[in-house]
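User: Can you help me understand a structure? I only have the sequence.
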Amino acid sequence: MSFSNKVVIVVGASSGIGESCVSSLLNLKSTVYGIDFEKSRISAKNYKHFILNILDQHVLKNAIEDICKTHNRIDGLINCLKIQNYNQPFYNLSLKEWGNKLSNNLKTIFLSSKYVSSSMIESRKGKIVNISFIKTTVKSERTEYSLSKTEISDLTKTLALELSPFSIQVN
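Assistant: Let's start by predicting it. Here is the structure, written out as tokens:
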């Protein structure tokens, strides 16, 4: 797939893997939209960054709809946002901390995929990439983080099955 003239959204674009994805896509001549809680260090002609509360479904939906209106399509979505790392064993976490980690990591992928997929279904093409964690197949030292990433892998497989009739690939 050529990335030239493609419109791609990167959720979690401000640092780490997301920031690297943005840089790589820009080098490949894509139009890139970053979405994150924090400011981006990247500045480029074909890059726009949204600083917003990704967990607020209305705010996220509006941002994605604005991108769709601007380009009449979205070709790709990369989800690689990491939310909250408590850096402590599960037995020291409160129920709220445990629930937040599990819920929020899945919620961002669910919401961004939901709002982007409507545009992709219309055009009957698109690609969604959900970045998980290699330790989903290996034991991790952080139960809640590893479990939430395992759930992301399972969600990705289900999204792939549901979106494949529309020629949308999800990995």
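Now, to help you interpret it: The chain has a mean pLDDT of 88. The CA atoms of residues 95 and 131 lie 26 Å apart. Let me know which part you'd like to focus on.
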